[in-house]
């Protein structure tokens, strides 16, 4: 360490400029060389280093600004998505309620329609039964009438003689003649 301090303290001790040579003492030349290199680097590199640091600072600030803008955009998109979600949930609830209401209305309509159809079928059944009863009654009447007519014809044929038969025909013809004169 003594050699290092000697080189700084005893500057006059150095050989004169007339002689040129290499100083092979590493401990004596290193601090001088390093101080010269650092001095040159500081003098010439200060501007470059300041420019590099300013550029780096601007890039960092731009990155921060961009990330803030992206963050604000993401927050806005998140709020929009939440609003859309709330709207869709409300619509889904409304569709669910309307769907249940629609299902109930359709169910009531179906029940009412089925009830009306059953009423119509009941009415058709009753009408058919009534028609069949009337037809059966008419058939019985016709048979009774035919049997009564046959019985009356049999009785008339057995009781009437030709003379009585001619008098009945003449009386009926006379009645028809009188009715014709009245209507004319």
Please provide a written account of the structure:
This protein has 184 residues and is mainly alpha-helical. Helix content is 89%, strand content 0%. The protein has 3 helices and no strands. Helix 1 packs across helix 2. Residues 4-13 have low confidence and may be disordered.
Shape: rod-shaped
Low-pLDDT stretches are 4-13
Distance linking N and C termini: 174 Å
Percentage of residues in strands: under 5%
Number of helices: 3
**N to C succession of SSEs:** HHH
Report the C-alpha radius of gyration, rounded.
68 Å
Mean pLDDT, to the nearest integer, reads: 82
User: Structural class of the secondary elements?
Assistant: mainly alpha
Helix content: over 70%
Profile the largest sheet: none
E-strand count: 0
Protein name: ATP synthase subunit b, chloroplastic
Membrane topology: Single-pass membrane protein
Coiled coil: 64-98
GO molecular function, one term: proton-transporting ATP synthase activity, rotational mechanism
What attributes characterize this protein structure?
184 residues, mainly alpha, 3 helices, rod-shaped
